[in-house]
Amino acid sequence: MAEPKTKYDRQLRIWGDQGQAALEKASICLLNCGPTGSETLKNLVLGGIGSITVIDGSKVELGDLGNNFMVDESSVGQSKAKCVCAFLQELNDAVKAKFIEEYPEALIETNPSFFSQFTLVVATQLVEDSMVKLDRICREANVMLVFARSYGLTGLVRISVKEHTVIESKPDHFLDDLRLNNPWPELRRLAETTDLQVSDPISHKHIPYVIILVKMADEWAKSHGGNLPSTREEKKEFKDLLKARMIALDEDNYKEAIDASFKVFAPRGISSDLQQVINDGCAEVDSSSLDFWIMVAALKEFLAKEGGGEAPLEGSIPDMTSSTEHYVNLQNIYFAKADADFLAIEQRVRNILKKIGRDPNSISKAIIKSFCKNARKLKICRYRLVEEEFNSPILSELQKYLTDEDYSVAVGFYILLRAVDRFAANYNSFPGQFNGAMDEDISRLKITAVGLLGDLGCNGSTLTEDLINEMCRFGAAELHAVAALIGGIASQEVIKLITRQFVPMPGTFIFNGIDHKSQLLLL
Amino acid sequence: MAETATQPSRSRDLDKLLLRPGNLVEPTFEPGPGLRDDLKEYVKVLVVGAGGLGCELLKDLALSGFRELEVIDMDRIEVSNLNRQFLFRVEDVGKPKAEVAAKRVMERVSGVNIVPHFARIEDKELEFYSNFSIIALGLDSIEARSYINAVACSFLEYDADDNPLEETIKPMVDGGTEGFKGHARVIKPGITPCFECTIWLFPPQVKFPLCTLAETPRTAAHCIEYAHLIKWDEVHSGKTFDPDDPEHMKWVYNEAVKRAELFGIPGVTYSLTQGVVKNIIPAIASTNAIISAACALETLKIASGCSKTLSNYLTYNGAQGLHTKVTEFVRERDCLVCGPGILVELDTSVTLEKFIGLLEEHPKLHLSKASITHRGKSLYMQAPPVLEEMTRSNLSLPLFELMGKISKDIVHATGTTIKNDKKTSSLIKLRVAFKGVDGVTDMDTAGGA
């Protein structure tokens, strides 16, 4: 067996030991193991997911060999679930893999409590009716659910979870938390005690820009009635003052200061995104509240009290031109402030827990620390039940998509993916599934799609003939390349849901395999 | 069911796309069993790289109707590949990637023929690459992409009006990933921008200034690079650092720790040391699967015309929600690689040796140690020694005679150039025209530079 640290090195660099531990604890249920489902699981098994249960009632047919890598010649006539499961096990012996030879539709009908044992269910190639039923079951049982479907050159991925909260959303580009617009006393003191006018040129060009800006902003405020630069002219004047302090052309620290001067002008306080989190109804906590919301409640108190309107400090600083000594000092000051903010939040968390009758130590220090460090980046994702979306999509959005050129193909596929299920319910096969009767299927699908649009309140909207033709041409084919792509996306969303890192996609992802202008539809 | 079920067939699903007419397809699309058979028999695809993308590409192509595949990769399997390169097992560690990948896919998909090449891409003759209908790239380096791009573009010919000749276009699909992000693109040299036209999409890696490392380290990475780039040479005079030698890596780590302690800098770990020194790009199975699938789908579309082709650059970002975007980049008119070629005008008396010398002095080229090929024939080869000896006698002959006394033609030169202070192999396409033959005007010559 390979050393897991080495084997998983390339992914540990993304989600760390904690993310990996979450994956290794998770148990995943897969419904239908055609290529879409098999490929989804493959990506999770390679990454070391805890356990998988493959559910499929069908036997391997010759046609499956042409689109599914996990079955081969020797599998024909055997249980598909069994064959796929055996191949997946071969990929990673650390994963517990098992299969159940049963049709998912039957399980959904007869044994709904079956699903409550899993962390997450990946449901592939289900038709609308089964999707709706399974969704209700999983929502009730508090099990995360991801739908994935490949259909010719289109397909979809849709998450269904009541509420998913993220502390470590890990955005790529996020403004660093330097507080240059609102420095706390220790930072201000450090700036005060630093002499910007030092005559030694080497020292002069190694004063970090953070200190330069805090000091210059202070000087500005003193001569402007306590205000920071706000008008365009003032901002320009401030930058010119910085430029005037340079004593040589190669002073990178001053160049960095000029580039970063907008951080001095930035408005104080928290972002509107964070404000929304604070205002969320769930932030009024009681004994049944999730740990996340208890910490939000503490944050809310902190903002009103110790924080003075600012979130707890993140505590890390980016690299910048500086002497080692200045930089390390600066780091220590940021770290100390972050630690003080953390202690204040921790105290509030413990008090709240006590007040609602829970063990004050039930949330660990490490989690509170992570919460404080990421307080500015908290994310909440909520998903409608698919039944609600199907019955009453957000009409204004739907109408916008139907008339927007960038969205027209994607929303067309969205409607058609639903229309083919209605079609199948009426005619016992998907349009174009078998050769012959193509023209009849095309006109039937068109009528079905127009009817569906009418039911959704979009009377008068139509889809292009070309797209309807294409949908019939697809004939419910599950192409390997499309399945691998849809499965890849589904597995990536599963990873984000389970590690509780990064941000899962909102809405429904509609794959457009014709020109790759895929879209997320928020309905 | 309304219809009798169709005959059981391995290509049950693919047939829907290849046998039925469609409306949103390329004008070249001719659906039918003939198309399906042509894909199997006549379309040869080369997969460059048998890593995270390459493994996926081989599987995807084998299940997308292609039968004749080849794969080239110079690497051997490592334990850290196993989290995503699904064709490899623990017991394969140390074996050549190309060979194991080809074997595994052939074992599972019957009828598919995959020829592995455990070799460097530069070691193959131009002719090797000319055999393929499409080249699919699963690479992680800019240099390798650049090289294959130049190879594919070298086949491109233009007519008298500088329009690309359809039959000389060698299409490429290219994928790349980093963490939750990736791109897939289609390159049709002469029609869509080549890799070099949009080289700015790949900004050069930022390096730390040496004075920061030596005098004002601030981060853990500074301490690591100090140990790696400065201290190593100071202590091990003459011995080159080998990033794959765990003893070497351990030494760098220990030195970095010492330096970090000296300056009070936190955060040096063994994992970070490896990451910084080897410039490790984080990689996961899901992103590779998504990008490879997009590339394989485009390969199928290029070969069959069964749907529109991506035009021409898809980006995927799954870190914050899910964002995909298609951008239609445009060609660089004067691209040295995919353009009609650099015109070099010569006197008919110029010898091959003189010509090679001119390439080194040429202000746009600076190509040293060039080997010269004309219409697939080696006129002079710098290496290997056997070929060098065989072609050496050509050096003293006039190029005009060696090229069969025609007024102008395309010549390929491979040699080394200096890019960002680094020696790189370059392949350059030249339009050689001889003065005074067939009305070529006697104007400024490249040789004058």
From TrEMBL, chain A:
Signal peptide: none annotated. This is NEDD8-activating enzyme E1 regulatory subunit. GO terms for molecular function: NEDD8 activating enzyme activity; nucleotide binding. InterPro entries: APP-BP1 (IPR030667), ThiF/MoeB/HesA (IPR045886), ThiF_NAD_FAD-bd (IPR000594), Ubiquitin-activating_enz (IPR035985). It comes from the Eukaryota. It holds the Pfam family ThiF. The gene is LOC107403922. Pathway: Protein modification; protein neddylation. It is found in: Nucleus. Its main location: nucleus. Residues 8-501 form the THIF-type NAD/FAD binding fold domain. It comes from Ziziphus jujuba. Belongs to the ubiquitin-activating E1 family. ULA1 subfamily.
TrEMBL record, chain B:
Its EC number is 6.2.1.64. PROSITE patterns: UBIQUITIN_ACTIVAT_2. It catalyses: ATP + [NEDD8 protein] + [E1 NEDD8-activating enzyme]-L-cysteine = AMP + diphosphate + [E1 NEDD8-activating enzyme]-S-[NEDD8 protein]-yl-L-cysteine. It comes from the Eukaryota. Residues 344-435 form the E2 binding domain. SMART domains: E2_bind. The keyword Ligase applies. The keyword ATP-binding applies. GO terms for molecular function: ATP binding; NEDD8 activating enzyme activity. Catalytic subunit of the dimeric E1 enzyme, which activates NEDD8. PANTHER family: NEDD8-ACTIVATING ENZYME E1 CATALYTIC SUBUNIT, UBIQUITIN-ACTIVATING ENZYME E1. Belongs to the ubiquitin-activating E1 family. UBA3 subfamily. This is NEDD8-activating enzyme E1 catalytic subunit.
